[in-house]
Amino acid sequence: MSKFIKGLELCESFFNEYALPIIQQYYPDLKFTAGLLGYGSDVLGYDDSVSTDHMWGPRFYLFLSDCDISLKDELMRLFETNLPYEYKGFSVNYSKPDPNDHGVRHAEFINTGNVFPLIWIYTIEEFIGEYLGRKPSNVYEWLSVSEHRLLGFTSGKLFVDMLNLSKIRNEISFYPYDVMLYLIASQWAMIAEEQAFVKRCSDCNDDLGSRIVCTRIAERLMRLCFLYERKYAPYSKWFGTGFRQLQIDNEINNELVTAISENTIEGREKHIVSAQVLVAKLHNNSHITDKIDVCVQKYFGRDIDVIFADKFAEKVKDKISDLVLKEYPHIGSLSQVGNFVELSDNPLFIDNIQQLYKYPN
What we know:
Number of domains: 2
Strand order of the largest sheet: 5-2-1-6
Helix content: 40-55%
Distance between the termini: 62 Å
Radius of gyration: 24 Å
Largest sheet: 4 strands, mixed
Number of strands: 8
Strand content: 5-15%
Number of helices: 17
Structural class: alpha+beta
Low-confidence stretches: none
Oligomer: single chain
Shape: elongated
């Protein structure tokens, strides 16, 4: 078995040692961009030895201008006939796409014939259309494009960038300010809706319901941390991994882990409220709004501790300049609904998703 190497490092050295010389030999004047971005744990730097079982290995995207995209088939032929069979112990050849498994391809070692490599050739516009659906240009498109795909598009690395794809990546490296504010307000508002239920469910002998609500609030607090750090959040497989890499007080993570692990309602309530206090302090440190007092209080006289998260939602909403978005219900985005990828991650549904943000007639 080959010694594991991070996919991004593997792909960059593979491109520079083998693919780039082929391009330079046959098309020395060609202007292009190449790199690793889009799908895959290796793009995010989360890959490990388990990741190597499919759609992982020496691979890259090659972007051509509109006037040069006609060279696509010829370039693929050159790669198929000139690339090595393996690189650093990993196969360069891959199976045909599996029609029963979303087109997944697996490494297949060969020693004769042409290789069938993991290389994709697009114009930049073609790739944006296929991967993102479109480059978002207004607040409603921003709320409709998959957050995980925005992360994938802006992550990884460009090995060569003659076509200035980096400019587009920089332009959409994070949400516009109004969109960020709306998403922050939405998360606080949804926390506020359930802030009393961790204790109330337990008081009604519904311990399972209490745990579910506690976990849901924990996830929303985590999403707030991504927003305050101005980082896109990955989808559920890598959500916790990405969260641990944020530059935030580690005590937030500790309080969340303790809260969702607690078997007593006293401990569960204490730690999930403490986590809210810490994220509220993160809010104040962001200077998005004037400082908001953070204190634990009883919920309208009941024996339930809250910080009244709704005041954070209202203060943030006041800072939104887009008048329609400012008054729209705090529903956030579909990307903030865990494991909703069949809809939120499919570029074909962007126009449908945008309808969520238009008032009914």
